[in-house]
Amino acid sequence: MLTVSTVNVNGLRAAAKKGYVEWLAAAEADVVCLQEVRAEREQLPDHVVAPDGWHAAFAPAADKGRAGVGVLSRAEPTSVRVGFGDPEFDTSGRYLECEYDSLIAASVYLPSGEVGTPRQAEKERFMGAFLLHLTRLRQRAEAAGKEVVVAGDYNIAHTEADLKNWKGNQTNSGFLPEEREWFSRLLDGAGYVDVQRSLQPEGPGPYSWWSYRGKAFDNDAGWRIDYVLASPGLAAKAVEARVERAPSYDKRWSDHAPVTAVFDWPWL
Predict the structure, then answer these.
(1) Locate the Endonuclease/exonuclease/phosphatase domain: which residues (predicted)?
(2) Could you say which of 63, 86, 153, 255 is catalytic?
(3) Do residues 157 and 166 lie in contact, with contact meaning Cβ atoms separated by under 8 Å?
(4) Helix (H, G, I), strand (E, B), or coil: what is residue 198?
(5) In the chain, what percentage of residues exceed pLDDT 90?
(6) Is the pLDDT of residue 83 over 90?
(7) Which residue, of 83, 116, 126, 233, has the greatest Cβ tally within 10 A?
(8) Which domain holds residue 66?
(9) How much is the pTM?
(10) Mean of the per-residue pLDDT values for the chain?
């Protein structure tokens, strides 16, 4: 079996003090993809940055205190790649790729964007370059006889079933028509599979992010923006996908919940 989890930790130093360490210790995952780590390795204690039983790789952002992604795995990767070959984003702490004997696993954190600002333009540039990379990644993996999983915070709700208040967000970043069309191209053009939606085709949700403001969590007024995307061969082996939603507001250690997918596939 292969179990992959992904979670935006919303700052690993803070998450480690609120429940992340305990969650990881109990996790059945073989690969864990982290986003919005923010901290540098030297700012984190050993039990967080190099936990027992895990091989840990991190890609911090050049802009200190922002972004940052990581991949933890039970097996040691044969190679680690930071960024995807785009000079603008290779030091932005938004992509990390680990390669194993039969698998390529990557953690991604797309920019959040804001309509009418340079942040949205940055997000669009990232999307364009990233789609090209993912297309080539699948081709490279297929030629090498490997499967691919690219998990993380995509900051896009793909369909109306992926956020509670879709009517009120049609002109907001994260649910813009062009962003949703781009996500469709990841699936229909680049050939990746949204594992959770393939197993649970009906919505609404399950959501993976809820604002800390108001009663969003209590009312389950969330967004499904954290995804496990897999190559078709691996996705065909998926047997389970779940959002590990905290039992109550006070038990949350991030504004995101971990998303976990299980594959009946011997990756080692």
Answers:
(1) 6-256
(2) 153
(3) yes
(4) helix
(5) 96
(6) yes
(7) 126
(8) 2-263
(9) 0.97
(10) 97
Whole-number Å distance between alpha carbons of 210 and 254: 9
CA neighbours within 13 Å on the CB side: how many for 135? 13
| Per-residue 3-state assignment (H helix, E strand, C coil) for 71-137 | EEECCCCCEEEECCCCCCCCCCCCEEEEECCCEEEEEEECCCCCCCCHHHHHHHHHHHHHHHHHHHH
Which CATH number do you get for residue 223?
A: 3.60.10.10
136 φ/ψ angles, rounded to the nearest 5 degrees = -70, -35
pLDDT at residue 180, rounded to an integer: 98
Tell whether omega for the bond before 111 is within 30 degrees of 0, i.e. cis: no
**Number of domains within the chain:** 1
Q: How far is CA 243 from the centre of its chain?
A: 12
Please check whether residue 243 is in contact with residue 207, taking contact to mean a CB–CB distance below 8 angstroms: yes
Q: Chain-centre distance of CA 195, in angstroms?
A: 12
Determine the pLDDT at residue 246. 97
The CA distance from 16 to 7, in Å, is 13
Tokens of 149: 């999983």
Question: 268 in a domain, yes or no?
Answer: no
pLDDT digits (tens, 9 = 90+) for 29-78: 999 999 999 998 888 999 999 999 999 999 999 999 899 999 999 999 99
